[in-house]
Amino acid sequence: MLQAVRKQNFRILGKYEISKLPLFGLLYKYVVVLVDRETASKRATSVKQLKSVIQKGISVLLCPEGTFNETRKPLKAFYDGAFKIAIETQTPIKPILFLDTYDILNYNSMLSITPGRSRAIYLDEISVEGLTVKDTNNLKDKVYKIMEERLIFYKASWIEKQVKS
Residue 75 — φ and ψ, nearest 5°? Predict the structure, then answer.
């Protein structure tokens, strides 16, 4: 069954280091919101740029785990940054699950992709209305639990099957 894709302008949050790659880096830096974590001032500049993009009504696609999940568990621990920014800009969170990434993208090489299905599940929007930065951990935990439960429900392929004794 085919499902309509959302019509929404978005950019991906990406690591600054990748923009230094020959040829690919040139294109990359124009289609992503770069985050440079090298120094506190560079991190602050990255956050300002990210907030500016959000304030223009452009959604930002990011992975709160920070990197590939190579654990066989539904999710790795989330970092605070995305949730703080969502609260500070009062931008709702729209979780998306990609169920087949583990099967089609080889974690040993970014250039090794295997053909296959790529299912995306759009979860219900999570409001941040009225939350303050003090609520960051509670929001992060809420999103984590919702996403983890849905990944298990949809049987994402990388999740280690529980052995019953």
Answer: -145, 155
